[in-house]
Design goal:
Length: about 575
């Protein structure tokens, strides 16, 4: 049944009318248009709307409809209609300029990319597009050409596009063969139109970043073009537009991910040497307080580190194994914004994984100073604002960051040793002015939590003075310091179990915290984590605490609650069965 184009235009107008406050009409229009998009008639209607060019909304709806139909319902179209659809789509693309509404341009270009991927009879879509719209054609138009080329690799790896395994493999091989054509096109585009028009420059770099997802040795061609130097020139200049700097950063990061898989030595040497020279631009961005550029540099340094980490471990400070990247990463971690530091975390995880597999003390020794500096920087980032009065809440972004810091330290601490990390924080706690700055004290105790369980119970050099300081804290100490101190005691439970003479003092310290509603829960958990040796029974003390919680909260305590405590003290298993009901 034929669909009246005017009825479609009216429904689109109703759908996008911002001044329409009639929800029923809006919902009716949305439902009707959704039904139309799912129908076979939608192919023809969309094409008619694009030719009519009535307004932006109708053209956007038509472009979106075509994309959806090609992406999800391509099987509806008879094979003999594929060529005419391609011709019509290419005609629509020819009208796209830099002034075209971006939403329409994107939908049409992605639609054509999906058509090229679906249409097996289209033998060389990339070659045909470059011939029709490229710099050497009679009617060059890089705007739609680059948009389609950006979309092709992205759509190839999209799960939404229904392509069989054989077709995907065929396209993978085809794309790899076309990389030289893409490199040549981008070289010409960047050195001509892209040199004077930022919009073309942006699209060219976006295209390159997208195509770096196609892994092939053909990328070695880049060393004979202006493209690598162009990317590096953009990223080393933090004063270019934020969008251009971000896209160039994407490009560099995508290139390094590709090089991690392909190991193209000539390209790697040129690119990595350029990245290692970005230290000064980073400091310039810091001086300008340009957080976007700072973030971009942190991304680049982290990606470089992840790409080279295997080489650094196998050939430290030799060729591509240069440890200079570690200095760059530590410079980023030294930035006052903890979100910048967090960008580097994946590298440190990967480094710890590679070193753990290597399992060589001599190699670990070379990375030890860097991990010490990392932990020291993380200590500074974990410092709470001095005017903060209460305990950090779990919903706080900074709370979550500190949790991720602890996870990272647990992963990397074997490189320098848990005792050394504990000592680092102990030295901070022993400084003369530490008592005047509660947040510095708390941050050191917080870092100690990460490694406390790794300390051998026989350790008698570092832990005793720390424990003595904890147990002699004044009652009016900041709430967050008290909270973190209680948590640290829980982490030291195995060490305390091997020093039974301290157990009464620890229990006394924890029971005092039960009187504070902010500390009661964590104090009870810490108490229950203590494991007394067989010859030293703290059963009565723990029961007293449990009863205190009962009266404090006025909640009944049942036998099954007590049975859950068996793991905390072996004698509960025997004695809790004889307790009366509460």
């Amino acid at each position: 049944m034929e669909v009246d184009i005017n009825e479609v235009l009216a429904a689109v107008s109703t759908l996008y009318d911002a001044e329409l406050h009639d929800k029923i009409k809006h919902d009716q229009a949305s439902k009707w248009l959704g039904h139309l998009q799912r129908s076979v008639q939608a192919w023809k209607v969309a094409d008619q709307l694009l030719h009519a060019k009535r307004d932006v909304n109708s053209c956007f709806f038509a472009a979106q409809t075509l994309r959806t139909k090609i992406q999800l319902y391509f099987g509806e179209l008879p094979v003999e209609a594929h060529a005419s659809l391609r011709a019509s789509m290419l005609e629509h693309l020819g009208h796209i300029t830099e002034h075209t509404y971006q939403g329409i341009a994107t939908q049409l270009c992605v639609a054509l990319a999906d058509l090229a991927l679906h249409m097996a009879s289209w033998e060389d879509p990339i070659g045909d597009l470059i011939t029709q719209f490229g710099p050497m054609s009679n009617t060059p138009n890089l705007v739609p050409l680059l948009e389609v080329l950006i979309a092709l690799p992205e759509e190839l790896h999209s799960r939404q596009l229904r392509l069989g395994l054989n077709r995907r493999k065929q396209l993978d091989d085809y794309f790899r063969r076309k990389v030289p054509s893409i490199v040549e096109l981008l070289h010409v585009g960047v050195s001509t139109e892209g040199a004077t028009k930022e919009s073309t420059h942006l699209k060219a770099l976006r295209c390159m970043a997208s195509w770096f997802n196609i892994h092939t040795e053909e990328w070695v061609m880049l060393t004979n073009t202006c493209l690598v130097s162009d990317i590096l020139n953009v990223v080393r200049n933090p004063q270019v537009s934020p969008r251009l700097h971000e896209i160039a950063t994407d490009c560099v990061c995508s290139a390094m991910i590709m090089l991690e898989a392909e190991r193209i030595q000539p390209l790697a040497e040129v690119l990595f040497a350029g990245v290692l020279q970005l230290g000064e631009p980073y400091h310039m961005a810091v001086a300008m307080e340009d957080i976007n550029a700072i973030t971009n540099y942190a991304r680049i340094f982290s990606e470089l580190g992840e790409t080279l980490v295997e080489v650094m471990v196998e050939q430290p400070d030799q060729g591509l194994g240069s440890l200079q990247v570690l200095h760059l990463l530590l410079t980023c971690i030294g930035h006052h914004d903890w979100e910048v530091a967090e960008i580097t975390f994946n590298f440190w995880y990967k480094l710890s994984e590679v070193l753990y597999r290597k399992n060589c003390d001599n190699v670990n020794e070379q990375f030890k100073p860097y991990v010490e500096r990392l932990i020291e920087a993380l200590y500074r980032h974990c410092q709470i604002e001095p005017d903060h009065e209460s305990i950090l809440v779990q919903q706080d972004d900074f709370y979550e960051f500190r949790e991720r810091v602890q996870e990272l330290i647990k992963d990397v601490v074997f490189i320098c040793g848990s005792k050394l990390c504990f000592q680092q924080m102990a030295h901070i706690l022993q400084s003369p002015d530490i008592s005047k700055n509660w947040n510095l004290m708390e941050a050191a105790l917080f870092i100690m939590q990460s490694v406390a369980k790794n300390l051998v119970p026989e350790e008698n050099e570092v832990v005793p003075p720390i424990l003595e300081g904890l147990l002699s804290q004044p009652d009016d100490i900041h709430l967050q310091v008290a909270f973190t101190s209680v948590q640290l005691l829980a982490e030291l439970n195995e060490w305390i179990a091997c020093h039974p003479n301290l157990l009464p003092l620890v229990l006394q310290f924890l029971t005092k915290r039960l009187h504070n509603k902010h500390l009661a829960t964590v104090a009870a958990k810490s108490n229950l984590s203590l494991r007394a040796p067989d010859h030293c029974s703290n059963l009565h003390a723990v029961l007293w605490i449990f009863l205190f919680i009962y009266y404090y909260h006025q909640r009944p305590v049942h036998r099954d609650h007590l049975s859950n405590m068996d793991g905390y003290h072996p004698k509960f298993a025997q004695k809790s069965n004889t307790l009366p009901s509460f």
